[in-house]
Amino acid sequence: MKRIAVLTSGGDAPGMNAAVRAIVRKGIYEGFEVYGINYGYAGLVAGDIRKMEASDVGDMIGRGGTFLYSARYPEFAHREGQEKGIEQLKKFGIEGLVVIGGDGSYQGAVALTKLGFPTIGVPGTIDNDIPGTDYTIGFDTAINTVLEAVDRLRDTATSHVRTFIVEVMGRNAGDIALWTGIGSGAEQILIPEQEFDIAEVAKDLKRGRLNGKKHTIILLAEGVMSGDEFAKKLWEYDEDFHTRVTVLGHVQRGGSPTARDRVLASRLGAKAIDLLKEGVGGVCVGVRGEEVVYNDIVETLANGKHVPNLELYQLNKEISF
Ligand code: ADP
Ligand code: F6P
């Protein structure tokens, strides 16, 4: 294998640039020619592909977003799109591909693998919802961004003795809410992986007020319901609950990656190159504990499931009253 390519796909995540940098630099170091594909699978099918030099990734390690751009391109779920993509790769003489993205992007990598094209998945999403890894690139930065915002909300919540519902991203996963709930000392954490009873939530909130709490913060994962819906539910349960809702939205996806995300991105990007050098494709890289690991991508997506650490959920109940 002489020539390889990299693309970023799906929702962008801080640290994607650091991963591309590692792939380009380590790839060149190992003797590959490395190509960058713009706009994810859309750019792959369109042939928006260019050769990258080491200098193209200069000053990229700390930059948020993805300088290769990203796209949602549903057409890639169809075989026709996938075959066109492989045609383009062959046209450029590319023999291996690294895909940095979330679970949707991994499905694209699985499709290419099944069609016989050596593809490696690198987990890049703020959601931390990909099987085969403890952490995804971008998660650490996103939770630090959320924490900063919640700390600010707490100031105003305390001043007015108010209840704030903070809706955070994560799609169907609760990790962002779980980690930032613990980190901000939130009174309640609501995640899709854990059922809740509105009566219990209301009782807990009231007890906190009776105990003299001056603020109440509820970290709500978007996968449970929207902040407005939850505010309505609380109010319907008891008209005493006048809440304020903050939807943090896409601010969670931006910003310079944290040290942890930069290091994770560099390690995982470099591992993808090591694997391609050994002729290994059809896998996804990740981190388990402190170890960089890799697994069969088809099997991982078919049978693996990311499960949040529910010990954290229980811990919050024990220390947030
Ligand atoms: P993420 O990778 O962040 O989860 P998406 O779910 O939007 O984001 O997926 C990113 C892209 O991956 C999609 O726009 C599409 O191009 C491709 N993709 C998603 N699902 C599939 C699938 N089942 N088969 C092939 N490609 C897919
Ligand atoms: O997957 C990353 C993510 O930010 C999710 O947390 C969120 O549900 C979704 O993407 C938002 O997608 P879009 O940027 O297309 O609005």
How is this structure best summarized?
This protein has 321 residues and is of the alpha/beta class.
Note the main attributes of this structure.
321 residues, alpha/beta, Rossmann fold, 7-stranded mixed β-sheet, 4-stranded parallel β-sheet, 11 helices, 11 strands, binds adenosine-5'-diphosphate, binds 6-O-phosphono-beta-D-fructofuranose
The outline comes out as elongated
- Could you estimate the helical fraction of the residues in percent? 40-55%
CATH topology of the largest domain: Rossmann fold
Order of strands across the biggest sheet?
3-2-1-4-5-10-11
Class computed from helices, strands and strand pairing = alpha/beta
**Level-1 CATH class name of the largest domain:** Alpha Beta
Please outline the major beta sheet. 7 strands, mixed
Output the number of helix runs.
Answer: 11
- Ligand species: adenosine-5'-diphosphate, 6-O-phosphono-beta-D-fructofuranose
Task: Please mark out the parts with pLDDT under 50 across 5 or more consecutive residues, or reply none.
Answer: none
Could you give the distance between the termini? 58 Å
H and E string: EHEHEHEHEHEHEHEHEHEEHH
- Kindly report the average pLDDT value: 96
Q: Using the 3D structure, state the CATH architecture of the largest domain.
A: 3-Layer(aba) Sandwich
Topology, number of strands: 11
Counting structural domains, the number is: 2
- Rg to the nearest angstrom? 21 Å
Describe the structure.
The protein is α/β, with parallel strands linked by helices and about 325 residues long. It has 2 domains: about 5-140 and about 255-305, 3-Layer(aba) Sandwich (Rossmann fold), CATH 3.40.50; about 140-255, Phosphofructokinase domain (Rossmann fold). It has 11 helices and 11 strands. It has helices at about 15-30, 40-45, 80-90, 105-115, 140-160, 175-185, 200-210, 225-235, 260-275, 295-305, 310-320, and strands at about 5-10, 35, 50, 95-100, 120-125, 165-170, 190, 215-220, 245, 285-290, 290-295. Helix 1 packs parallel to helix 9 (about 260-275), helix 2 crosses helix 3 and helix 6 runs parallel beside helix 11. The longest helix has 22 residues, at about 140-160. The protein is elongated and about 70 Å long. The model has no long low-confidence stretch (mean pLDDT about 95). Adenosine-5'-diphosphate binds near residues 11 and 107.
